[in-house]
Amino acid sequence: MSVTGPKLQATIFEKSKPGRGGGKIPHPPKDALDRLPSDARRATPPALPELNEPEVVRHYVNLSQLNYGVDTGFYPLGSCTMKWNPKLNEWAARLPGFAGLHPLAPDVLAQGSLQLLWELEEALAEISGMRAVTLQPAAGAQGELTGILMIRAYHRSRGETERTEVLVPDSSHGTNPATATMAGFTTVTIPSAPDGGVDLDAFRAALGSRTAAVMITNPSTLGLFEARIGELLEAIHEAGALAYMDGANLNAILGRFKPGEAGFDVMHFNVHKTFSTPHGGGGPGAGPVGVGEKLVPFLPAPRVLRDDDGSFRLERPGERPDSIGRMRAFVGNTGVLVRAYAYIRAHGGSGLREVSEDAVLAANYLKARLADTFDEPYGGRLCKHEFVASAATIKHETGVRTLDIAKRLIDYGYHPPTIYFPLIVEEGMLIEPTETESIETLDAFADALIAIAAEARTTPQLVLEAPHDAPVRRLDEATAARQPNLRWRPMAGAETPCPD
Amino acid sequence: MPYGPHTDADRATMLARIGLATIDDLFADIPEPLRASRLQLPPPEPELELAARLQGLADRNRVDLVSFLGAGVYRHYSPAAVDQILLRGEWYTAYTPYQPEISQGTLQSIYEYESLIAELVGLDVVSASHYDGAAATAEAALMTCRATRRERVLVSRAVHRHYRETIATYFLGGGLLAEEIPLVADGPTAGTTDLAALERLLADPDRPVAGVIAGQPNFLGLLEPMAEIGRLAHAAGALFVAVVEPVSLAVLAPPGDYGADIAAGEGQPLGIAPQYGGPYLGILATTDPLIRQIPGRLVGMTTDLDGRRAYVMTMRAREQDIRRERAASNICTNQALLALAASVYLASVGPHGLRDVAALGAARAAELEATLTLAGAARLHPGPYLNEFVVRVPDAPAVHRRLLDRGILAGLVLAEAEPDHPDLAEGLLVCATEVTTSADIATFGRALAAELGTADPSWAAPPVGPAVAGASR
Amino acid sequence: MVPTDLRYTKDHEWVRVEGDAATVGITEYATSQLGDIVFVELPAAGRSLAQGATFGVVESVKAVSDLFAPISGVVTEGNEALAGEPELVNSDPYGAGWMVRLRVADIAELDELLDPVAYDALIAVG
After folding, report:
1. pLDDT band, residue A63 (cuts 50/70/90)
2. Are strands C64-68 and B299-303 parallel, antiparallel or unpaired?
3. B chain contacts of residue C39, beta-carbon cutoff 8 Å
4. C88 within a domain of the structure (yes/no)
5. DSSP H helices in C14-80
């Protein structure tokens, strides 16, 4: 049963024909460009494709049908929180009042958007128990960099320049150590304990006067709540370091755990995870950052402020000299944030609490259904919104690996879960159902995985050569990396057969 | 809960299977003292009411003014097909294409985006995109340091202030230094990058330069001597980064033609709405020799088991999930949906259409210049521009405010945007595009003349409406 | 059984010494762990390496690994063939897939490395 359409497409360049298209833009006067110096002019026009509207639309419609989206079906990608993307939010973001507003418009013209941003900051501060929030970062990774740069500024403001290390569990998302490097820190990796939590002894040994920050994901990337979080936070602060929480897994703890209240100094949110903004095939997202009192002076500029008369404005350049500065141009990915705002307003506090309840319920249910089929690296522990299953035994007994099982799931009509992350689990599969999937969907998915595990023993070739029922089969990724073809050139393209 | 499917019966079934009694049991592993206080948020609203609330907020924004504001984000006409395609769920609700077999749509669209932009900028390799033009430029600056193993980058003062500030933030961690290249103060090249100053900055043998960054057109709308800047950079062993505006590349010489090693820029003008700040599209392109230095995702063409043409994210071992602390960048996304929007835009308008967009903007801008000059606001700089320039208006901030009340957004007040640039204190940065009409321009001219007292009594200036501009700004 | 004329590190590099010239590469076990090699980053000639120092990086489709110098020395050449054909590391890891040649600084350092029997034992456990 093919989950996506079959019709591969030639490139848009191959569909081009000189003389096609046009009719969208009026013609300029002939002398429009005469006043430009000739040495600044383009000598030859860009070789962009020429198609008429039906061809353009068919090209992109057919391409879209080769994709799988949340709108298509279940997307149990651990760590990604592929929950439903509400349609109201698409309507809201496109309202001309929101979409048509220039980011440098004077504040007096932007009161609606400024109010929305201000209210969203308040809501995220309440959800996280943090003192203040910046909506500027364009993505979670940028939020991480924002947080770590603020920590850096904090320590420097106190003359503590010997704090050059950031501690990161070995289960962390790759962005954490990459962020530490970008901010000029050395990463110290802490092993996880056998129960999946941070190894407290290794942690205490690494913590010291050179520690600037500790980056913790809670619940962890294994989907487990860090039971020793209280002790960890105490140890971090005793060492004079600050605690950063990677908020990727916030979907598990809405209304149950507020990082700021618990003692975290800073955290980022992934609105494209917890707050339903669509993933768009890889972006856009947004990565707001919440901070406790200590870090408020260092927030990126400009902040959104509310004056006594109830009107809103942006901070003026230079108004807050301790700010770390800008992470990007303009105020933020407001178009994405409108969607997050609508999501939060649709749920309210009670609704968000229910979101986490149902997300954790669904994950534990799936885990229970699969307990006899896969290895459970963290055995009897309750998981939160996601759990990791392992195909290690299946691999040892049949040679079929997690990768193969994932590809076979495609034939069953599902997008595979996250595989081989976190790195510390052998043949791992990270499964996150989210709260918006029905019990029927969960059962059907569990049944599919159980069937595939059986196939691994009885007809392994079927799994090893999967997918059989997708628009393309497994790809030659080695050649793609060794001899990169990153751009359409008529000769390079012609070497690879055009779809018929 | 508005989107959740579970009935009480469903929940009971699941709890039973798990072997727990209540929902709260699922959270027993959160230590008691750390459990959250009650979530105090405004109560939930059914869709009908929430829609009204959102409409109300949108209505509080004023987008009805006749606008001449550019400064890095430009109003262009986006053909109707673009948004209709973007609304397809298979595009916007898809995830990153880590499973290429069921992501060929996204992957091919990114490959085509990379190819389209490569054509526009005239360089070999284009990344799958970055957050915005500022982030792309900052990444370009970091690239020059990695590639040359030098620590000093020179950035023209006429690069967008937000971009320069972003570079400064990105440089905080690495012990890297970004210095400004001043602009020519007077004469025919006033407002462009000062080549003599650049040469002096490049000449310090103890502080070699990794990269030189300049924009075309620059932030003030002026055309820069890009080839010459590039020559000076290369002579000193530095790389040359061009910050570009994609629509202009239909008519202006592209970075590949004037020796740029890296091109960065903002793709918003390619059919993406202003949206009060984003999401936008960071363009980053480079030459083949620098391919391993480019951060971010790359999509390439390959074949599948059966020999079919297919697309896949490639050269992945550069990225953060594999390199971790050794990654060049922590970037984990690309602006996939916006890259798609830009591609559909380019496919819809075509090369001739894109040229017409640029040329129409130039024509309207010339009309704007003539009208504003008549009204008493002449250009501040004499050099050539494409569709954006600075005019000198006495008491510009106050005039700008009063023009708001006449329904006109008269560009950007440089006294506020560039406070430490005293020779811009009376400047308004204005632009025109293909959506600017002659009637708009005439309206602006008459209103400005009325404000400056240069109006012919027979002209009918637009009336002063209810105060838009509040007391504070 | 791995080649008997080589010495090995616990990070899966091998070294062949002939006089004061050493050739270094990675073992078949390493390539089987990494998968298809797509890129090898090697040091320039003239670079001085201490035993255990990182001398380069090897990338596969889905992984990356540092390369550690088995012994100290000065790089005399890197295998340029790997730029166009990184797959040589997979197909012929002990021959055409060599990575760097060094002028050996201290031959006694060889004694600290694993002999073929010890290396075989190491990978059998792993």
Report:
1. very high
2. unpaired
3. 292, 315, 317
4. yes
5. 28-34
> Which residues 26-85 on chain C approach chain B with CB closer than 8 angstroms?
38-39, 57, 59-64
Q: What Å distances lie between residue A161 and A146, A154, C3, C61, CA to CA?
A: 18, 10, 50, 39
- Dist CA A489 CA B220 (whole Å): 36
CB < 8 Å to A253, chain B: 30, 36
Tell me the β-bridge partners of C25. C14
pLDDT of res. B472:
34
* Residue C126 predicted with pLDDT over 70: no
Contacts of C86 in chain A (CB under 8 A): 482
* A102 has pLDDT over 90: yes
Q: Which residue of A has its CA nearest to C61?
A: A478
Q: Say whether pLDDT at A498 is over 90.
A: no
Same domain, B333 and B396: no
Are both B206 and B311 inside the same structural domain? yes
Q: What is the DSSP string of B300-359?
A: EEEEBTTS-EEEEE--GGGSHHHHGGG-S-------HHHHHHHHHHHHHHHHHHHHHHHH
> B318 CA to chain A: closest CA distance, Å?
11
pLDDT for A490 equals: 72
B218 in the same domain as B279? yes
Distance CA A317, CA A324 (A): 12
The whole-number average pLDDT for the span A80-91 is 98
Q: Which chains touch C (3 or more CB pairs under 8 A)?
A: A, B
Spatial distance between the Cα atoms of B304 and A475, rounded to a whole number of angstroms? 4
pLDDT, one tens digit per residue, over B405-458 is 999 999 999 999 998 889 999 999 999 999 999 999 999 999 999 999 887 766
Distance of CA A260 to the CA centre of its chain: 22
**What are chain A's domains?**
88-345 (3.40.640.10), 354-464 (3.90.1150.10)
| pLDDT > 70: percent of chain B | 98
Q: What is the dihedral of CA B421, B425, B426, B429, to 10 degrees?
A: 50
Task: Kindly give the pairing relationship between strand B209-216 and strand B239-244.
Answer: parallel
